[in-house]
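Ticket reopened. Same input as before:
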Amino acid sequence: MQVAPATALSVLADPPVRMVDSAVMDYLLIEVVNALRVSSAVASARAKKIECDMVEAGLVLPAPAPPTKQQNPRDSASNTSSKVSGSGDEDEGVRSRLEAIGMHVGGNFAERLCRDRPLFSDSLDVIKFVCKDLWVSCWDKQVDNLRTNHRGVYVLQDNAFKPIARISSWEGRQEALKRAKLYVVLPAGIIRGALSRIGFHGTVVPEITTLPQCTFQIKLPKNT
Amino acid sequence: MATTSKQYKAIGEDLWKSRTDKINSELFALTYGALVVQLIQDYEDYAEVNKQLEKMGYNIGTRLIEDFLARSSLGRCSDFREVGEVVAKVGFKSFLNITPTVTHSGPPPPSSRPTSTAQQSGVPGSSFILTLDENPLAEFVELPDEALEGGLWFSNVLCGVLRGALEMVQMQVQVEFLSDVLRGDESTEIRVALLKYLEEEVPVGDD
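Engineering reply: fixed in the latest deploy. New output:
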């Protein structure tokens, strides 16, 4: 290699940011939702089957109407992270999976972003980091509006939230809105994961009233 | 005047540079990785996960090709060899910013036709192998032993993308991984083999 040692080392220390086209990410996210819908149905079907088998084998009493009652004896072989709990709402399965993926992405990505940053001074500082650095890296702009009640609740508003900016449905705006609500779960997970990795374990609730505007309500515990 | 390999490279570079909308490839890698993990947990069967990834890729590919054609305004490829060049140098470059190397191979029975003849070297049976020296999907990935034994092809979505995209331009291909560095092989190779050309037809139920 004809590279001078200094350059090679500096590349190693500060590798150039690799980029991919954002259209690829958009298409991937669309398919992620579809794929998770199918896979969560498969997983919950398997869980139900195991439950039926155990009931037939007499190991477990047949479940009363709310199936969340019996849990312990049933050492379900399927992923226990599935928070479906037989609620029959398949969207629940997709939602929890999307949030889990978001948290994984958000946590790891926040680590990368915070590499050269000094320590965060307080929760407002962290929220500002989310509003500026995280938003810009993920969605190419900053948050448009930040409101807080200074008691741990923050509301971030984005007037043209990138993941849902181009959603449309041939069934009309209402349908588009409904679908958009599913697509914002992953970004909410990203925010939650980032906050969690930084050390602030709170909840993030996304809300859409009119496309493409989206708000995220973040509740952080008082004084970590 | 056939477009040379260098020209395709240049086209690919231009397309990549002209794209204003780019994201950090780590985001992409993290999302894809988390998805694969979730699919493995849900299906508990690596062959099924491979299939699902390929299916996902197929759906993505059918959309991606439109994006590609709109952006690149490249004409129809004259033969399968050219398809390989365009896929590697323009396609992969403009979307993933990587340029895999292409190795072509013609159909098994020796053909007396020289490859420079326009229509004829797209004979079913021709194939090309893409060798990816970097894979943006596999950026932080290490496969556990059971995934290795189970036969997981981590980046199988790429096979689906190629299959879907090429099907939309009337080529039925078989795409599969030959080797993957994640599995401990020396290189990551994808083989694309032409099965047949498809006739244009009205999609089922579309009239």
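Chain B is about 45% helix and 15% strand. Residues 111-121 of chain B have pLDDT under 50 and may be disordered. Please confirm and we'll close it.
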